[in-house]
Write a structure and sequence with these properties.
By secondary structure, the protein is α/β, with parallel strands linked by helices. It contains eight helices and 14 strands. The longest helix is centred in the middle third of the chain and has 8 residues, at 111-118. The structure holds D-malate, manganese (II) ion and zinc ion (ZN).
């Protein structure tokens, strides 16, 4: 086996259903008529025994409970070797607080994302004598689990919502939002849960990949406004949408990628309904809609 990935959470921040949301999808999920989805996280392994978790969601406790390969193997022995963060957003870091029980693992992120954690004293609950914080420079591979290397690369994005100032640049390129290239032997897989735009560089990087997990936050850019749920577009949130001429379905069209899987779906996204025509359209374009517990092996 070269590479194994398991979606711990397929939803964006808030999850499906989101605690305060009465939108169509959230109501259906509460009624058990469509599958609920927890918040954004992916577990990866090169040997099936040692695992890294990409992003620590607020739902991590339930996600780990639902994932037998990540259960303790002894009194305090865990298959979890490391956690890697792709940005400082709450849906990707709040779960670190759940991992505070003096359990050793490595915490990988860029220096900017580590600085965000360091500026928030609550994260010192992860005792530095037990949890080793490792800085990964952009574009330099680091081993995150035995036989599995991660290379972080900048993708267009923005600073976390709670750090936004008066002016917000929504397609900054730097250390605040990264994609991950995962390598195990000859296999390359990519994890990019937040991305404002598919740049030419990113397109070239992904061309020929066996597997890509990509930002599926919204179906259309003004989806939240149209549903009467807020004033923000996907663009303003630093996410490219699936549909439309600027969308990811169009942007990936014609690229040679073995498997394309959407993750980080917002609860308003119609593709979360198994019978939605939008879902059929994404699937007809070669995309799989990620779901909690979905496993992919390459
Ligand atoms: C996002 O992906 O845009 C953020 O997770 C939003 C948030 O922090 O709620
Ligand atoms: Mn998010
Ligand atoms: Zn909702």
């Amino acid at each position: 086996m070269a590479f194994r990935a398991r979606i711990l959470g397929a939803a964006a921040g808030g999850g499906l259903p989101q605690w305060n949301c009465g939108c169509r999808n959230c109501v259906l999920a509460r009624e058990g008529r469509i599958p609920a989805q927890t918040q954004s996280s992916l577990a990866v392994s090169a040997n099936g025994t040692d695992w890294a978790i990409l992003n620590a969601s607020p739902d991590i406790r339930a996600q780990l409970a639902a994932t037998p390969p990540l259960h303790p193997t002894g009194l305090r022995e865990m298959p979890l070797r490391s956690v890697l963060l792709t940005n400082g957003d709450i849906d990707h870091v709040a779960g670190l607080l759940t991992l505070r029980e003096m359990q050793p693992f490595e915490l990988h992120a860029t220096s900017e994302i580590h600085a965000v954690l360091a500026a928030n004293p609550i994260f010192s609950a992860l005792n530095p004598e037990v949890v080793t914080r490792r800085t990964i420079a952009l574009d330099s591979p680091a081993e995150i689990a035995p036989g599995l290397t991660a290379t972080l690369f900048a993708v267009p994005g923005k600073v976390p919502l709670y750090m936004e100032g008066a002016e917000v640049e929504t397609d900054l390129m730097g250390e605040q939002t990264v994609g991950v290239e995962l390598r195990s032997g000859e296999t390359a897989a990519y994890y990019i849960p937040g991305c404002a735009r598919l740049t030419d560089d990113l397109r070239a990087r992904l061309e020929g990949a066996a597997l890509v997990f990509f930002d599926g936050t919204l179906w259309r850019d003004d989806e939240m406004i149209r549903e009467g749920l807020g004033h923000k577009t996907g663009r303003r949130m630093g996410h490219m949408s699936m549909s439309g001429p600027d969308g990811s379905i169009a942007a990936f069209d014609g690229m040679a990628i073995g498997r394309k899987i959407y993750v980080h779906m917002n609860n308003t996204n119609p593709v979360l309904r198994p019978d939605a025509p939008e879902r059929a359209e994404a699937e007809a374009a070669g995309w799989t809609i990620g779901e909690d517990g979905m496993e992919v092996t390459t």
